[in-house]
Structure prediction request, 184 residues.
Amino acid sequence: MAKEIEIKFALDDEKKMIGRLLALGARKVSEGLEHNVIFDNGELRDKGMLLRLRRTGSGKNVLTFKSGGKIAEFKEREEIEVEIGDFGKAREILEKLGYETWWIYEKERTDFVLGSAKISLDRLPFGTFMEIEGGEAEIRSAMTRLGLDPKKGTTKTYLELYQDYCKEKGIEMENLVFWKKAQR
Prediction:
């Protein structure tokens, strides 16, 4: 069983953060557009669970399950991932098993490694965020080195952040893809 431990930060100046990362010796390891399909069967979301099918920027297809987990300073939950060959066939299998597409979202993601922490810069149609993932000590070290205030971080998912955005702007939530930008 793998654990995912993470925290997110909204970014006002992505270029400045990239400069900080590179100045600290972070290595850029990947970049590209991710396409995510979230599935539900009427029970998963109610239990705080996630079932996601993702096509990464490098063309890998990954099926992910995440448990409800716990939220404190960081979000921590069980994460099980498996790489699959055919995105369309995997989606069809999930739908035949009774899972329905609940939400689709895309993000442009650039991944870095800083020490043993994974840093992801995610550009979504409603904002830019940085996700720091690793062990608690690695996350704290990365936040300190990057000059981030932990109190300004969030453990919310992109779905929750988007729901907050829609509520604030008075707009209806919809699939979040780049070919149809969200209102700003």
Observations:
- DSSP finds four helices and nine strands in the chain.
- The CA atoms of residues 68 and 99 lie 18 Å apart.
- Helices lie at 14-23, 87-96, 136-146, 158-169.
